Amino acid sequence: MSRRFGLTGVGGPGQHGGEAAEGRSPQQQRCLFMKAHCLRRALWTLLTVIGISAIAICVGAIGFVADYNSDRLKVRATATELEEIGRCLIQHGKTTGRLPDLDHQRIARLVFSKDDRGMPRSTLKRARYLRGGRLVDSWESPIRFGCSDGGDEPVIRSLGPDRRIETKDDIIWKAR
């Protein structure tokens, strides 16, 4: 091992050749051996730290990508949810001649009910989209209901990933 560090003739403790190699005393040989040993340990520690850091960076990058993709999937799922709720409201308006009151319990009853033929009005799952009697989005924020400027068309809003109103990531469904 000591030859790799250019310390030829330097043996470890207990490896005395009887006389000093290259004119070095046993004390100098032990000193060189200890320096080489410390150098190996420092190099090993450095490589370990670099390896752990590289692993941590990779795991962090994977986590970031997973969170980013998760949010994109949640945005799509929420947009589909709002569209399905809007479709139920429009269908109810065509059937009854008016939109239901924009109240969470009434809209939830409508969305999770069956039509005249006994078919579910939506494919949404009550357990997934209903919390405390309120319809929620993929981030568990309550969905907001309103009407268009003319008051005759529903507008449905999710606060989006940041859970704040009137920001660029809000997901809005309007009747067309």
List keywords for this structure.
176 residues, mainly alpha, Glycoprotein, Type 4 Pilin, 3-stranded antiparallel β-sheet, two-stranded antiparallel sheet, 5 strands, 47% helix, rod-shaped
List the helices and strands and how they pair.
Elements: H1 26-96, H2 104-111, H3 126-129, E1 130-131, E2 134-135, E3 144-147, E4 154-158, E5 171-174
Antiparallel strand pairs: 1-2, 3-4, 4-5
Question: TL;DR?
Answer:
By secondary structure, the chain is mainly α. The chain is built from 3 helices and 5 strands; from the N terminus they run H-H-H-E-E-E-E-E. It has helices at residues 26-96, 104-111, 126-129, and strands at 130-131, 134-135, 144-147, 154-158, 171-174.
Please explain how this structure is put together:
The chain is mostly helical and 176 residues long. The N and C termini lie far apart (78 Å). It contains three helices and five strands. A hairpin with a 2-residue loop joins strand 1 and strand 2. It has a domain at 85-174: Glycoprotein, Type 4 Pilin (2-Layer Sandwich), CATH 3.30.700. The chain is 47% helix and 10% strand. The protein has helices at residues 26-96, 104-111, 126-129, and strands spanning 130-131, 134-135, 144-147, 154-158, 171-174. The strands form two sheets. It has a three-stranded antiparallel β-sheet with strand order 3-4-5, with helices on one face. Strands 1-2 form a two-stranded antiparallel sheet.
